Amino acid sequence: MPARRAAVIGGNRIPFARANRRYARASNLDMLAATLDGLVARFGLSGERLGEVVAGAVLKHSRDFNLTREAVLGSRLSPATPAYDIQQACGTGLEATIAVANKIALGQVESGVAGGVDTASDAPIAVNEDLRKVLVALNSARSLGDRVKLVGKLRPGQIVPEIPRNAEPRTGLSMGEHAAVTAKEWGIGRTEQDELAAASHRNLAAAYERGFFDDLVTPYLGLTRDDNLRPDSSVETLAKLKPVFGRGDDATMTAGNSTPLTDGAALVLLGSDEWAAEHRLPVLAHVVDAETAAVDYVHGRDGLLTAPVFAVPRLLERVGMSLQDFDFYEIHEAFASTVLATLKAWEDPAFAKERLGLDAPLGAIDRSRLNVTGSSLAAGHPFAATGGRIVATLAKLLHEKGPGSRGLISICAAGGQGVVAILEGA
Amino acid sequence: MPPSKMPADTLRDWSNTGLARRLGAPRIPVLRRYSPGQPLLEGGPALVAAVGDGRFAKPIAALVAEHGATVVTETGDERLAAVVLDLTEIATLSELAEAQRILTPAVRKLAPSGRLLLLGPVSGDGRHGDHRHSQGNAEAVAVAQALDGLVRSVAKELRAGATANMVVVDVDTTPAAVESTVRFLLSARSAYVDGQVVHVGAAEAAGVADPQRPLAGRVAVVTGAARGIGAAIADTLARDGATIVAVDVPAAGEGLAAVANRTGGTALQLDITASDAASRLLAFVGERFGRVDLVVHNAGITRDKLLANMDAERWDAVLAVNLGAQLTINEALLAAPDLLGPDARVVCVSSQTGIAGNRGQTNYAASKAGIIGMVRALAPRFAEHGATINAVAPGFIETEMTARMPLGTREAGRRVNSLRQGGLPVDVAETIGWLGQASSGAVNGQVVRVCGQSMLGA
After folding, report:
1. Does B339 touch chain A (CB under 8 A)?
2. Is the CB of B267 inside 8 Å of chain A's CB atoms?
3. Is B308 exposed, middle or buried (CB count within 10 Å of its CB: 0-12, 13-18, 19+)?
């Protein structure tokens, strides 16, 4: 156990927008800088030098090589605040939080900001791979003759660009197709998925109504709430949607119980208790511990998004807690089926014994403690931003609950990875 | 400060061209406005005099000299940057005539954007039975009241951006108590305050350490700070040294963050009409600063409709934001005296509409007039804590809202005042900054119009 725990002081995000809508013309840098400025305003940090800012984006332009540092330079923070980018797919925001929290715990920095941003609208489109090779060769060609030869290699077909795909490079399957395989394997039904989705919308809308997000969200480009949110969403309306992932009559995954492509950014302010006290800032929660797991979804038998199933028991064992010891569970809703499959795996005695090496399964959780202010199905899921959204939300929930309350975060990520963490209310 | 989106006053600009001068068109003055480091007075010496044994003339002469201006006691050939006449001890018609003999030559010499400032006795409030301005002495009371008519009339006569205002004092008001008010009314900060009478009482006033940054070290909450006049208030208070807590509804958060960041302050997204708004606001300033020194109730909305067509929703929304929230927050402040700084100030933004009324604005006018009543009712209660509560009532102020008015309406609104132009948001902000100073503790329960001496409701 480290000598001290990093404090979660607060957070800021912009409302999440469905792709190609309100933020269609905003870049990752625009959104990250705006989110950082909102955070600076909320905590009165104008001109302040922080220990570091760590963030990332999953879909990145080549010009975004130093995205987070550029965002700092474009913000009201002191330009003497260092920054770096990280990227771990949908785990980016939480992994960034862990990175900053660890430095704070070690005493290497006193304060920091962590999170991420993503745009599915302003996506990087690269030149055709054939064209790129010709252009690179042209650039290094030494003689006119070489250049003429290379220009002769240009073909009309090379105009077709490389567009980023929401698919796993090693399987060619989209994330939804992978999730559909897992859903089928665990026998996750349509109705329970729709129920989870409806609850997400209901909970997020209620949280907005009670002003819960007043100090977590700053409007951006005229958008004041997540535009994917449908407060009147119900199991009945969701049941009418046609499946989009999986095949055949037993396909269950629809656009309603899967997250849409989304644009947005979210950041968390972390610090030592001393730094927070010096700046008269609140401590909402502390970062207790974290664990990242990965599974072999390519050759092995695990699903792409099932790594948290393995990460959580390892983390619980290390901190000596059981799955039932939490007041809140924040399980990222990449797909409703992913959440349900994860919970089912933790309840399964055979899986516990064979795959987790446990005598008994982790058991069921109190579902009324799950994603109580909504999650990605309602808010949307700008990949790298989700971790920051969840950390700030959970920290505030724990602070409301009181000191000693505990919350578990579980986020699945592309590449068969999963990042999980425990926060304790302050 | 950010580039302003104010509409241009084309007529004023044209009236200052050579062609307009040759045509004999009346000139609309460009008002002298404050910028940091600017001298208190420019354009000549200040005439500081008294009729009778006024106790304010000497300390004011010293104050003016301290600010680098030359002080004279009689009008000579030179232009005068300011005329200050202490009439606090006059009680007879012959003394009043003496004042006229001094003022007439002085007014002729008043420089552009010059300042005429009278100090007079508060008339007939009956609080000082043994004083000659008490109700028993009809002539003294009449003379004191006569000054009111005098100052309001000369304000209408002055040209070229010059203003006339009066400070009325109690028998036990000290020269130190009027200092911040005199400094404000003489300076370019009061550019659009004209024809006003301000009462300065006997409460002890804190000194000002640095007149360039009179709000240094003070924590100021500004509601409705995301744009318009609220943003100008935040900018101006921050320029004068205050630490800003910028408050606005969550939906205005983007602009609010920009204001908070450029002022080096903090943004608080809060709907002030929420049932827990006052406790959230106080908890926030308590946690972050441990106290609040200045609360500026600026947030306001309009939902115009003729009374005959008014629905409950429009009425309730306007009254809730413009008046109800102020009442609730003020009560919460009074219930938490530990949170009030040693010289706490509350300034409420009323409106000319609350004084003069306006067609289609029964709800808005009711709320803004209500503020005036509230300020008068709460003044003694805040005084118990060494605090004050005052109101400013802006007239026609050039904002994005007035920029959207039809040209005719806008032009009419601009010209019906003694300065023949609209004010700027900064003019309202400067007035609030004066009332927010620790040294303005003797100004309490006042309503100061920032209207260029508008003819509406006068």
Report:
1. no
2. yes
3. exposed
Contact A42 B267 (CB under 8 A): yes
Q: Contacts of residue A208 in chain B, CB cutoff 8 Å?
A: none
Q: What was the ipTM of the complex prediction? A: 0.90
Strands B163-169 and B110-121: parallel
- HEC-encoded secondary structure of A185-209: HCCCCHHHHHHHHHHHHHHHHHHHH
Position B431 scores a pLDDT of 98
B250, B252, B257: residue with CB nearest A41: B257
Q: In terms of pTM, does the model score above 0.90?
A: yes
Instruction: Choose among B448, B433, B434: nearest CA to B351.
Output: B448
B287 CB near a chain A CB, below 8 Å? yes
Measured torsion, CA atoms of residues A305, A306, A311, A316, in degrees rounded to the nearest 10: 130
Cross-chain Cβ contact B252/A215 below 8 Å: no
Phi first, then psi, for residue B151 (nearest 5°) are -70, -40
**CB contact set of B368 (below 8 Å; sequence gap of 6+):** B300, B322, B323, B350, B351, B353, B354, B355, B393
Judge whether B85 and B118 are in contact, CB under 8 Å: yes
DSSP labels for A295-342?
A: --TTTSS--TT-HHHHHHHHHHHHHT--TTS-SEEEE--SBHHHHHHH
Q: From the CA of A422, how many Å to the nearest CA of chain B?
A: 26
- Comparing CA positions, the residue from B33, B55, B311 lying closest to residue B161 is B33
Q: SS3 for B408? A: helix
Pairing of strands B266-269, B243-248: parallel
**Are B253 and A218 an interchain contact pair (Cβ–Cβ within 8 Å)?**
yes
A165-193: string of b/e by CB count within 10 Å (b at 16+)? eeebeeeebbbbbbbbbbbbebebebebb
Residue pLDDT, tens place only, B185-222: 999 999 999 999 999 999 887 887 788 899 999 999 99
Backbone angles phi, psi at B328, to 5 degrees: -65, -45
Give A-chain residues touching B265 at CB under 8 angstroms: 41, 44, 46
Mean pLDDT of B418-430: 96
Q: Do B250 and A42 touch (CB under 8 A)?
A: no
Nearest residue to B426 via CA among B449, B402, B409, B450: B450
Buried b / exposed e over B351-388, threshold 16 CB at 10 Å, is bbbbbbbbeebbbbbbbbbbbbebbeebbeebbebbbb
Which residue in the set A41, A47, A221 is minimally distant from B260, CB to CB?
A: A41
pLDDT-based confidence at B249, cuts 50/70/90?
Answer: very high
Q: What is the dihedral of CA B103, B104, B110, B114, to 10 degrees?
A: 40
Q: Tell me if chain A has a CB within 8 Å of the CB of B283.
A: no
Partner-chain residue, chosen from B254, B261, B271, that has the shortest CB–CB distance to A76 = B261
DSSP string, B97-159: HHHHHHHHHHHHTEEEEEEEEEEEEPPS-SS-TTSTTSTT-HHHHHHHHHHHHHHHHHHHH--
Which of B264, B269, B274 comes nearest A215 by C-beta?
A: B269
What one-character DSSP code corresponds to residue A274?
A: H
- Does the pLDDT at position A145 exceed 90? no
CA distance B268 to chain A (A): 6
Contact residues on chain B for A38, CB-CB shorter than 8 A:
253-254, 257, 267
End-to-end, the C-alpha distance of chain B in Å comes to: 33
Among residues A279, A221, A223, A247, the alpha carbon closest in space to that of A42 is found at A279
Contacts A43 to B, Cβ<8 Å: 266
Counting every residue, how long is chain A?
Answer: 426
DSSP code for B25:
P
Cα gap B56→B220, rounded to integer Å: 31
Interchain pair B264, A47: CB under 8 A: yes
Chain A partners within 8 Å of B271 (Cβ) = 211, 214
Best mutation site among A40, A209, A278, A279 for testing chain B: the one with the most B CBs within 10 Å? Answer: A40
